[in-house]
């Protein structure tokens, strides 16, 4: 015969005093879009490690000459070039098919006091590194000051999130509604790498790609991600 076990409940005030923080309309909208994405888009996730030693050296050389593009700026350019060759990644799912977009517009997540805001670099594949860097700086400043406009956040066909600046190694980003994939960029770390059959010091960065599985199968997504990796490992391709 078993005995009934009574589990004590926590007193009502166990959490202490609470404060309700109401979200702004922008953050409410973002929350709804995230929930919509996870509820309606079947996600798949891929990850690669990238040897960015040459990229870091090139950026250091550019910095010695003046203001240099950030690692994220270089990732934007590398991604934009890869999207040219992988149109399905630059698409939107519709019932029964996909719409492949002719323009490559990359949304860049920016951390602000009101949550993540995503300004858009339009026609990113046709802009050089200096143009991309200047545009990202301007839009990021406007986003953090609350001055960015809705048109500056519209029309993205792909998105990039970089938490590496906060020390994050990898993450699984949520695909934005209306897009087929999103790339997450990790922190650059110093690690031993094998080059020419020898173990040498190197700089390594993790890239994580989240995809809408209705649009992209694993092999398709992997080919795109490997092209981004190749572009970053050969920074001369970035212009």
Q: Could you characterize what this model shows?
A:
With 239 residues, the protein is an alpha+beta fold. It has one domain: Chloramphenicol acetyltransferase-like domain (Chloramphenicol Acetyltransferase), CATH 3.30.559.10. Helices cover 32% and strands 25% of the residues. It has helices at 25-40, 53-65, 71-85, 129-144, 218-233, and strands at 43-51, 91-94, 97-100, 106-108, 110-112, 115-117, 120-121, 158-162, 181-185, 189-195, 198-212. The strands form 3 sheets. Strands 1, 4, 7, 8, 9, 10 and 11 form a 7-stranded mixed beta sheet that branches. A two-stranded antiparallel ribbon has the order 2-3. The protein has a two-stranded antiparallel sheet with strand order 5-6. A hairpin with a 2-residue loop joins strand 2 (91-94) and strand 3 (97-100). Helix 3 packs across helix 4 and helix 3 (71-85) crosses helix 5 (218-233). The longest helix has 16 residues, at 25-40. It is globular and about 60 Å long. The termini are far apart. Mean pLDDT is 91; it is low at 1-6.
List the helices and strands and how they pair.
Blueprint: H1 25-40, E1 43-51, H2 53-65, H3 71-85, E2 91-94, E3 97-100, E4 106-108, E5 110-112, E6 115-117, E7 120-121, H4 129-144, E8 158-162, E9 181-185, E10 189-195, E11 198-212, H5 218-233
Helix pairs in contact: 3-4, 3-5
